[in-house]
Amino acid sequence: MEFKNVYVINCVEETIPHASSIKENIEEERRLFYVGITRAIDNLYLFSPRSRKGQFKDVSRFVVEGKLNDMPVDTYGYEIGNKVAHRTYGIGEIAGFDENDKDKIKLKFDDGLFRSFSLKILVDNNLISKC
Question: Going by CATH, does the domain composed of 83-130 fall within 2.40.10?
Answer without folding.
Answer: yes
